[in-house]
Design goal:
Helix content is 52%, strand content 8%. It is of the alpha+beta class.
C-alpha cells in the first residue's frame, strides 16, 4: 500500500496594495516607506514610495504633489504615476532607475571619495532646485537616493511632502528651517557613504537630526577608519555639512553642491573647479587692480629715463598689481623666445631692465584702476587684506637673515598671500564665507569654548581646494611656477618646522612666519598674545631667531620709540 503524497508547502500570501503586488520592502522611516512592487497593469517592476500614515486631506496632497513635480532637474527622478490607493498616497517609479543607497552600501561598504562626492553633488543640486522653488522633500532617506549603473544619481520623493507650511513670515521661516534640516540630512548621508557606517549608529537621518544641535547635544564627524582614505578637502566639506554649530553648516543645498562640484572637478582635472574659475577670471580681468594708485600714476607720468632702475623698481614694488604684471610679462616673453629653461625672473628690478621703460609704462596703463571689478561694498575687505600683506612683507624683511635681497623677501611673502588677495578680489562672496567659518561661533552652555575653522579647512569647505592651489595655478598661468612654486607654499599650521636646508626654504619659512604673526595681530587679547607665543615657539629655533627679534620686527615703531627715549 502506497503512502499518501506529502502536502505541498504553504505559499506565502500575496500582499497587495491596489494594483501593486508588494514584493520587497526596500526601506522605511518614521514617515515613509519604499516598496519594490509588480504593477499588474503593466506587468512591470516598479518602486513605490508612500507615506506610512493615511492622508488627512488627499485632495490637498495631490494638488501640492503635482505642483512640486513641475520642478525639474536631471537628478530628480520623475515618477511614472502618482495617486491614492486605500487612503495612502504614492509615487511610482521605474525600477530600472537604479539601486537604492541602502542596496549599494549592502554590497559595497563604502564608495570611493570621488564617486561619493559626485553623487552627493548631483543630489544636492536637485535638492537645491526643489528648495528654491519653495518646496520640500518631506523626508530624505538613504532609500530615496538611487544610483544608476552608469554612475548617475537620482533623488526620489519630490512632491511627497504635501502642502507647504503657508505664506506668512513664520511659515517661511519654518520652510527655511526644514530645508536646512534636509541639507543636514544630505550631509549625514555623505558621511555614511564615505565612512561606511551610519552616523550615531542610526540609519534614519531624520532621527540623527533630532540628536544634533540645535535640537540635541550630540555631534557627527567623519572618522578616519574608512576603507578609502578621504582627502582632507573632502573631509572638510563633509564635516562642515554636519558641523556641530548650525551657523557653520552649509546655508543651502546649492552651497553644498558647489563645494562638492568644485572638489570633484579639481580631482578629475587639476586645473578645474575653483582653480579653473579663477584662471578664467585672470584671463578676462587680469590679476589684481591697481593697489597703490599714486605709485602707478608716478610710473605713468613719464620721466622714467631719469630714474635709476633700482629707484624705479622700488616705485613699482609699492603696487602689488604692477609688480606681478611686470614679472608676468617678462617671463611670458622669455617663454615665447624659448628661454624659460634659464629659470624664472623673480626680480622686479631685473624685469624693469629687461622690458624697458616703454613696456613698464604700458603695463601700468593696462592695469584696471582701483577697485577694478570689485563691488563697492567689498572694497574694504580687499584693502584690509592688502594692508596685512604689506605688513607681513615688512616683518619678513626685518626677520630675514643678512644677505637676502629685500625685494625677493617681499616678493615671496606677497606670493604666499596671493591666494587670499585673489579670492578677495575675484571671489568676494566665497571670501566672506571663509572668513565667517574662521570666526568662533558664540559660546553656549554645551560648547563654552567653540573654535572656528582654520583657513585651510574653511577654504576646503567653501572652494573645494585650499588657497595654495589657487596661488600655484596663478603662478603657472603667469609663467612664474618654476621659481616661486615651492616658496609660495605655506606650511600646514600643525606641521613641525625643521631647520631649513637651503636658501629658498629659509625664504619660504621666513615669509610663512611673518604671515602667521601678522594674522595673530588681528586677534583680540588674550588670544593675540597666546597665538604670537605659539608661532614664535614653532619657528624661532629652526630659523635661529630670538623672541626679541620677533618682537622688534612686529613692533618696529615701539622699538624706535624706546631708542628715541634712551637718546633724549
Amino acid at each position: 500500500m502506497t503512502s499518501p503524497a506529502a502536502p505541498p508547502p504553504p505559499t506565502a500570501p500575496v500582499r497587495r496594495l491596489g494594483p501593486f503586488v508588494l514584493r520587497a520592502l526596500l526601506g522605511k522611516s518614521e514617515r515613509c516607506m519604499l516598496w519594490q512592487v509588480l504593477d499588474e497593469r503593466s506587468q512591470a517592476d516598479r518602486l513605490v514610495l508612500m507615506p506610512r500614515a493615511k492622508l488627512p486631506d488627499p485632495t490637498a496632497w495631490t494638488t501640492a504633489a503635482r505642483a512640486a513635480l513641475r520642478v525639474q532637474h536631471p537628478s530628480l527622478a520623475e515618477p511614472l504615476d502618482l495617486g491614492l490607493v486605500d487612503g495612502h498616497a504614492y509615487l511610482a517609479y521605474d525600477r530600472a532607475l537604479g539601486q537604492t543607497l541602502d542596496e549599494r552600501l549592502a554590497r559595497h561598504r563604502v564608495a570611493s571619495p570621488t564617486e561619493a562626492a559626485a553623487w552627493a553633488a548631483a543630489v544636492a543640486q536637485a535638492l537645491a532646485q526643489v528648495h528654491e522653488a519653495g518646496h520640500l522633500m518631506g523626508d530624505l532617506q538613504p532609500f530615496q537616493w538611487l544610483l544608476a549603473a552608469d554612475g548617475k544619481a537620482f533623488l526620489l520623493g519630490q512632491g511627497m511632502a504635501g502642502p507647504g507650511p503657508g505664506a506668512d513670515g513664520a511659515a517661511r521661516q519654518r520652510l527655511r528651517d526644514q530645508a536646512a534640516d534636509e541639507v543636514l540630512c544630505l550631509g549625514l548621508l555623505l558621511n555614511r557613504l564615505l565612512g561606511g557606517a551610519a552616523p550615531l549608529e542610526t540609519t534614519d537621518p531624520q532621527e540623527v537630526v533630532r540628536r544634533l544641535p540645535p535640537h540635541g547635544k550630540e555631534f557627527v564627524r567623519l572618522g578616519f577608519d574608512a576603507a578609502h582614505p578621504v582627502p582632507e578637502a573632502l573631509r572638510a566639506i563633509c564635516n562642515r555639512a554636519t558641523a556641530t554649530q548650525p551657523s557653520q553648516r552649509y546655508p543651502t543645498a546649492r552651497a553644498l553642491a558647489r563645494a562638492l562640484e568644485a572638489w570633484v572637478d579639481h580631482q578629475r582635472h587639476p586645473e578645474g573647479g575653483t582653480v579653473g574659475q579663477l584662471v578664467d577670471r585672470l584671463q578676462r580681468y587680469g590679476g589684481l587692480p591697481v593697489t597703490r594708485p599714486e605709485a602707478v600714476r608716478n610710473v605713468q607720468a613719464g620721466g622714467l629715463e631719469r630714474q635709476h632702475s633700482g629707484a624705479l623698481a622700488a616705485l613699482v614694488l609699492q603696487d602689488l598689481a604692477l609688480s606681478f604684471e611686470l614679472l608676468r610679462r617678462v617671463n611670458q616673453a622669455r617663454a615665447r623666445e624659448g628661454r624659460a629653461s634659464d629659470g624664472a625672473v623673480l626680480s622686479v628690478q631685473r624685469a624693469v631692465a629687461m622690458l624697458g621703460l616703454q613696456e613698464v609704462a604700458a603695463a601700468a596703463s593696462a592695469l584696471r584702476p582701483w577697485p577694478g571689478v570689485l563691488p563697492p561694498e567689498r572694497v574694504l575687505n580687499l584693502r584690509l587684506a592688502l594692508a596685512r600683506a604689506h605688513k607681513a612683507a615688512d616683518v619678513a624683511r626685518l626677520l630675514a637673515p643678512a644677505g637676502y635681497e629685500p625685494e625677493v623677501v617681499r616678493l615671496v611673502t606677497y606670493t604666499q598671500n596671493l591666494g587670499r588677495l585673489l579670492v578677495q578680489y575675484h571671489l568676494p562672496d566665497e571670501a566672506d564665507q571663509i572668513e565667517r567659518l574662521m570666526q568662533a561661533p558664540p559660546p553656549t552652555e554645551d560648547h563654552p569654548h567653540p573654535t572656528g575653522l582654520t583657513e585651510q579647512q574653511a577654504a576646503f569647505a567653501v572652494l573645494g581646494c585650499d588657497l595654495d592651489a589657487l596661488t600655484q595655478a596663478t603662478l603657472r598661468h603667469w609663467g612664474l611656477a618654476d621659481g616661486l612654486m615651492k616658496m609660495a607654499s605655506r606650511p600646514d599650521l600643525d606641521s613641525p618646522i625643521h631647520h631649513p636646508g637651503s636658501d629658498p626654504e629659509t625664504l619660504r619659512l621666513t615669509a610663512a612666519l611673518s604671515i602667521e604673526l601678522v594674522d595673530a595681530l588681528a586677534l583680540p587679547e588674550p588670544r593675540r598674545r597666546q597665538r604670537i607665543e605659539q608661532v614664535t615657539r614653532r619657528y624661532a629655533r629652526a630659523l635661529g631667531l630670538s623672541v626679541r627679534d620677533i618682537q622688534l620686527a612686529l613692533y618696529p615703531e615701539a622699538a624706535q620709540a624706546a631708542v628715541d627715549r634712551t637718546l633724549s
